[in-house]
Write a structure and sequence with these properties.
This protein is mainly α. The protein has a domain of 89 residues. 85% of the residues lie in helices and 0% in strands.
Length: 149
């Protein structure tokens, strides 16, 4: 369904309830931003853990160190995309026009852009976590193989 078709459908569903429709759309934007905030928290946790365990992974060898750096780099790309979404403040009231269909279309298009951006960020964060956990695994295996006992 296109943005315009979705807007027209919502106008039919919310006929005579313009305020309810605007609140509905504002709520959807809030959900996208909340999802981005959850990812930011996960990114922060990853960076914090790296501060504690990063040195051990580096000492374990170049494979572990490389995986860790790649993982953190992916997480940071995801973080930047999330922050870009969170900090792109634009109030629904700024998009109000005399034509409610135009307003709804603009807000839905913005929601879709932000949702797409957060989805891409989630992929980077997930890839970063996989690489990071691979670094931890490599470090554990390499240190285990180097143990003289």
């Amino acid at each position: 369904m296109s943005v315009r078709e979705e807007a027209q459908r919502l106008l039919r569903l919310f006929e005579g309830q313009s305020v309810g429709l605007i609140q509905f759309l504002a709520g959807q934007l809030t959900i996208v931003k909340s999802y981005a905030q959850v990812l930011v928290g996960l990114c922060g946790l990853t960076v914090t853990v790296t501060g504690f365990s990063g040195a051990h992974m580096i000492r374990a060898g170049s494979l572990s160190a490389m995986l860790m750096v790649l993982g953190i780099a992916c997480v940071l790309v995801g973080l930047v995309l999330c922050l870009k979404t969170i900090t792109a403040l634009r109030w629904v009231s700024q998009d109000l026009s005399d034509d409610l269909l135009d307003t709804v279309t603009v807000v839905i298009a913005r929601r879709n852009r932000q949702q797409r951006q957060v989805g891409i960020a989630a992929i980077f964060v997930a890839a970063g976590l996989v690489l990071y956990l691979s670094a931890v695994s490599a470090a554990a295996l390499l240190v285990g193989n180097l143990d003289p006992r």
